[in-house]
Design goal:
Blueprint: E1 4-6, E2 11-12, E3 15-18, H1 20-29, E4 37-42, E5 46-55, E6 60-69, E7 77-82, H2 88-99, E8 104-105, E9 108-109, H3 122-139, E10 147-148, E11 152-153, H4 157-160, E12 165-169, E13 190-195, H5 203-211, E14 215-217, H6 226-240
Parallel strand pairs: 1-4, 7-8, 7-13, 8-10, 9-11, 12-13, 12-14
Antiparallel strand pairs: 2-3, 3-6, 4-5, 5-6
Length: 245
């Protein structure tokens, strides 16, 4: 059963009171009725199994049946930094990366990327990706929703995460596999994973990341589409961190 995220203000034990856009979604799209079960997660890390008691134009009220706390984190945070892809492919990458458990998504402008977001559209696009992440987090029963950052240039990424282990996928530029590269393991540590565009990384970009100490990795001999490489790499990474499989 999916979970739906609510603010702390919605939780007034023994009742959860839902208003706003989530009310409209549950009432009008999902046709939620009194007597039906509803699972909600509050952003401070508590999950409530409830039974709906009232549905009105102003609010949905549900009675708390069971409460659970978020499990203790045991693995590093994952910052996923993909090149901005065109249209639905980027939406799909955001959705699947969320399902796979990344903590932050940082869309990256690249030399060979075909998408150039106009300044006036940046916040609109970021908000769209954030909604996609929210829906994916609810569907996959996550405890948190990843934060979507504003699109940024590759040159700014390494400095933004000075203590993180920084990894980049680049076809034919490395024999080091993402399946074997040493990784940090503690929950207080962080991993940044960069994925390039369909056209690959520009030579200047490659020189820059090497100078910044970013570890170049491969997925093997096959040349994958950018969105395929993103999901394959995240799956391997999360499996190695004990978050998948």
């Amino acid at each position: 059963m999916p979970t739906f995220f609510v603010t702390p203000e919605a939780v007034v034990p023994p009742v959860i009171r839902i208003t706003g856009s989530l009310l409209r979604h549950l009432r009008d799209s999902l046709r939620l009725q009194p007597g039906e079960p509803l699972v909600v997660t509050e952003e401070r890390g508590r999950r409530y199994r409830t039974e709906v008691t009232k549905v009105t134009a102003q609010a949905i009220e549900s009675l708390i049946v069971e409460t659970a706390a978020a499990p203790m984190r045991t693995s590093p945070q994952v910052v996923f930094a993909p090149a901005i892809l065109k249209g639905e492919r980027m939406d799909w990458v955001v959705q699947k990366a969320t399902e796979l458990g990344v903590d932050f998504i940082v869309p990256v402008h690249t030399k060979h990327g075909v998408v150039k977001i106009q300044p006036a559209r940046v916040e609109h696009q970021r908000a769209r990706w954030q909604r996609i992440a929210l829906e994916a987090a609810q569907q996959s029963e996550r405890w948190t929703v990843p934060t979507i950052a504003e699109p940024t240039d590759l040159s700014r990424v390494p400095a933004a995460y000075p203590t993180a282990a920084k990894l980049i996928l680049a076809e034919r530029l490395s024999e080091t596999s993402i399946a074997t590269v040493p990784l940090p393991t503690g929950p207080d540590q962080m991993i940044v994973l960069l994925i390039g565009p369909e056209g690959g990384w520009d030579e200047e970009e490659q020189r820059f990341v090497q100078k910044e100490g970013v570890t170049t990795l491969t997925l093997g001999s096959r040349i994958l589409r950018a969105e395929t490489a993103a999901i394959a790499a995240l799956s391997i990474l999360q499996s190695r961190l004990g978050e998948l499989g």
